[in-house]
Amino acid sequence: MDRVKLLAARYRAATDRPYFATALYALSIVPSAQVPTMGVDRHWRCYVSPAFVDATPVGELAAVWIHEVAHLLRDHHGRAGRLPPADQRDRARVNIAQDCEINDDLLADRLPLPAGRMEPRLFGLEPGRLFEEYVPALPPHDHLLDCGSGAHGRPSPWEVAGGAPVVGPVEAESLRRHTAEAMRAHRRGRGTLPEGWRRWAEQVLEPVVDWRQVLTGAVREAVAWAGGAVDYTYRRPSRRSAAMRGVVLPSLRRPLPRVAIVVDTSGSMGDDELAAALAEVTGVLREVGVHGNRVTVLACDADVHAVSRVTSADQVTLAGGGGTDMRVGIAAALAGPDRPNVVIVLTDGHTPWPAEPESCRLIAALIGLDAPPPPVWVETARVPR
Ligand SMILES: [Zn+2]
Q1: What angle do the packed helices 58-73 and 91-108 form, to 10 degrees?
Q2: Is 125 helix (H, G, I), strand (E, B) or coil?
Q3: Residue 240: predicted pLDDT
């Protein structure tokens, strides 16, 4: 294999786009007559066809180097593993979608990719999307594209089996971070960066936490806390009794908590956002066994308009409009005959809050990333608009 040409191409890629240099040099080269052009595995081995090196000019080879390292930087194999199982099975389709995600940025960056490359516009798709969006949108195809398990996640026949990983997951993460920081420094020095890479670097450096996870965690924890208000009872003998030779021990009963959801229906809130947050909350509650008459939903703006018990989000009609005061809704929830242990408030945050912690757990799902924060004792999950 013409190693000199291949290394000259990597050198050119690293010189032209210095923020990729560290990641490019972390790749170890494995010559292979089986790999169609170039490909990567998840251990940062880069498989290279000697015939492809011979046939491709250095400038194009440099662009392919960046293409290959992009699969690894963008964690394509990790993300492919989170696709629905039916999508994962069609590895060529996944690979084409991933190439579309990478190549629109490389082309915007005027990198001379070889002919025959994939890009969104070939399939009538808009550039700038993530491959997860392209996978279901791709029309049927007969391309046989294989950039290796570092892309679609499934080992290709030409990959080295076993052996110690060249780059492990921890080092890979630090290479991603290093590259993202180098991209940020490049931009501060007024360098240009394609939109997809800019978003990628931002996400690596300041990951947006998934609000569903935060909300789910807070609700689960609060429900466990409320259920832990333990009640010793002698009604049922403990299973440990037998071993204790006739000593009757109290058994532990965990009462299911009551939950109130206070929904901000003032004019500033969008129905879609509220519906999504409400569906998420009721879904989490159902999972932990809190449903039916243990959940009360109150629609509230400056005044409580309706108190309704629901079992699913679509049973709630959003009413109201006008000023907002969630304190009214919280007070109404706590004043009812079945006092809740947990109150969850769905709001855009433009509301006064109770002056001090209530006797129940209070969780706020704040709609909109710019929503003003509630007092620190309110557990908070931010829901992007
Ligand atoms: Zn590829």
Answers
A1: 120
A2: coil
A3: 47
Number of H helices, E strands in the chain: 13, 11
Distance 184 CA to ligand 1 centre (A): 24
Please, what are the domains in the chain? Answer: 3-205 (no CATH), 211-383 (3.40.50)
- How many angstroms separate the alpha carbon of residue 64 from the centre of ligand 1? 8
Cβ-in-10-Å burial (0-12, 13-18, 19+) of 286 comes to middle
Reading the block at residue 193, the tokens are 């960066």
CA 161 to chain centre: 31
Is 252 a residue whose pLDDT tops 70? no
| CA trace torsion 37, 42, 46, 50 (10° rounding) | -40
Distance 21 CA to ligand 1 centre (A): 19
Q: For residue 220, what are its two tokens? A: 């689960």
Query: Would you call 233 helix, strand, or coil by DSSP?
Result: strand
Token digits of residue 224 = 């466990």
Please tell me the distance from the alpha carbon of residue 74 to that of residue 119, in angstroms, as a whole number. Answer: 17
pLDDT for 243 equals: 47
Output the pLDDT for position 270. Answer: 67
Share of the chain above pLDDT 90, in %: 44
Structure tokens at 259: 């939950």
What is the per-residue pLDDT for 197? 95
Q: Which residues pair with 251 in a beta bridge?
A: 233
R_g over Cα of the chain: 28
What digits encode the pLDDT tens for the residues 31-75? Answer: 999 999 999 999 999 999 999 999 999 999 999 999 999 999 999
Range with the largest mean pLDDT of 64-68, 161-165, 188-192, 361-365: 64-68
pLDDT at 342: 87
Ion ligand 1 neighbours (CB, 5 A) are 99, 147
Cβ atoms within 10 Å, residue 122:
15
Distance 146 CA to ligand 1 centre (A): 7
> Nearest 5 degrees, angle CA 22-CA 25-CA 27?
120
